[in-house]
Amino acid sequence: YTGKSSTQLLSESIKKIKVNDFKSIPVVVNENVTVYDAIVTMFLEDVGTLFVVDNDNLLVGALSRKDCLRASIGKQDLNTVPVHIIMTRMPNITMCKGDDLLIHVAEKLIEKQIDAIPIVRERDNGYEVVGRITKSNITKAFVSLFNED
Ligand code: ADP
């Protein structure tokens, strides 16, 4: 018997969960695709956030559902405007690494009021997107704590 309270045990379990344990595959688009094509990609890939990359495949921005809605109710032509015009851009993108603690990433989602965070790997000139964490991943991790042996 360890003598630890259930709260201590729960907190220890939470601190063992890394981003890599619950990550999803990222959906990325090139910065030059049109807003129209980005919206189609969101539907086809069933994601709410797209990560935007340049021709070197390095992260340059993020595009959410509401970014697309905002553009759709404006006067812009969705078929000609590229996503880099309406996205949130670097250096204002909140990112994480695969070996970060999931609880810290969950705190970032709340603090920044966003739904998704790209998991990145550092490159010479920027960041390569290797995964994504969304509120769904956090929910799955939360449920997994209940299902623990
Ligand atoms: P929605 O806008 O559909 O509610 P979010 O809450 O995720 O979705 O996005 C809110 C705003 O934050 C959007 O303008 C979006 O471009 C931006 N955003 C989304 N993900 C990130 C991120 N990882 N880092 C910085 N900004 C982001």
Automatic annotation (TrEMBL):
Source species: Caldibacillus thermoamylovorans
Name by which UniProt lists this protein? Transcriptional repressor CcpN
Q: Which residues of the full protein are shown?
A: 63 to 211 of 211
**Superkingdom field:** Bacteria
Question: Which stretches make up the CBS domain?
Answer: 22-78, 87-149
| UniProt keyword list | CBS domain, Repeat
